[in-house]
């Protein structure tokens, strides 16, 4: 899976083509975020209110981080990954300044997308610690989201598995105003995800990934499970090819249905 390197600020390599399904979300983000970053003057001229806060919510491993990175890649925007709760642990006592620094850093490399993963963790911490530190951090974050400090070219995407655990203050108008649900894939979407994940792999021409995705054992698989399935099946094919390396038959080296069948039961959704 794509790395979640915290703190670095660069255009990610993750592309839309690497994401299977999720067409509606892609369309919405293209319209309301990517185009605003790519054509800021045009958006302003049309009098469009530029939305700067987005919240992706839905079950784990279904592509929220991948989407955020692909958005940045498509818009040619820098990307900063921040894990919500870690932010607190790392900057205890100076979290307020950390947030200010973060946003001013983002402004210097704008257009820039700041991605806050596990936003729900902030509220849990706030309730658990009940301390000023957490309160200050949340308040500072809200100040930045409200754009009281200049927000030019800085966009924020938050992600959570538990929208019911999000600090309500974040959900008020003008903050994370655009919310998009990233669902668990159904059978057809699972096929699209396997196709996206298999693009660069030596999949045997006899394999129909749409059928693989419909296997009973794949029910309830999320994107991360499908990634593991693809990786394990490829490894199984590789092991077999190594064991039979004396043979020159190149079909031995491709990933076949039997390899998917061998490994699928090892993955529990
Ligand atoms: P979490 O809530 O656990 O942070 P997430 O929703 O952010 O999860 P990602 O980190 O984007 O999910 O996905 C984990 C991995 O699963 C990705 O690196 C990718 O390999 C795979 N994956 C998930 N969804 C998709 C998808 N729709 N298409 C292709 N790969 C996917």
From TrEMBL:
<comment type="similarity">
    <text>Belongs to the AAA ATPase family.</text>
</comment>
<protein>
    <submittedName>
        <fullName>Cell division control protein 48 homolog C</fullName>
    </submittedName>
</protein>
<feature type="domain" description="AAA+ ATPase">
    <location>
        <begin position="50"/>
        <end position="186"/>
    </location>
</feature>
């Amino acid at each position: 899976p794509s790395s979640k390197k915290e703190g670095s600020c660069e255009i990610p390599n993750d592309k839309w083509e690497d994401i299977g399904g999720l067409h509606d979300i892609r369309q919405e983000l293209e319209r309301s975020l990517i185009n605003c970053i790519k054509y800021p003057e045009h958006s302003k001229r049309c009098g469009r209110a530029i939305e700067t806060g987005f919240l992706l919510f839905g079950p784990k491993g279904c592509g929220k981080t991948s989407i955020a990175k692909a958005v940045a890649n498509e818009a040619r925007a820098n990307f900063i990954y921040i894990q919500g709760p870690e932010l607190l642990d790392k900057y205890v006592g100076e979290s307020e300044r950390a947030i200010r620094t973060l946003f001013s850093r983002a402004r210097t490399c704008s257009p820039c997308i700041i991605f806050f993963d596990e936003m729900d963790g902030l509220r849990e911490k706030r309730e658990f610690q009940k301390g000023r530190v957490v309160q200050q951090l949340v308040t500072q974050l809200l100040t930045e989201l409200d754009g009281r400090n200049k927000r030019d070219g800085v966009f924020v995407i938050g992600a959570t598995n538990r929208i019911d655990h999000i600090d309500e203050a974040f959900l008020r108008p003008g903050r994370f105003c655009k919310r998009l649900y990233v669902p668990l894939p159904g059978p057809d979407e699972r096929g699209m995800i396997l196709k996206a994940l298999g693009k660069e792999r030596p999949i045997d021409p006899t394999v129909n990934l749409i059928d693989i995705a419909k296997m009973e054992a794949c029910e309830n698989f999320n994107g991360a499970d499908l990634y593991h399935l693809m990786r394990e099946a490829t490894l199984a094919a590789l092991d077999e090819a190594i064991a039979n390396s004396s043979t020159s038959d190149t079909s031995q080296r491709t990933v076949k249905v039997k390899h998917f069948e061998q490994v699928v039961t090892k993955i529990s959704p």
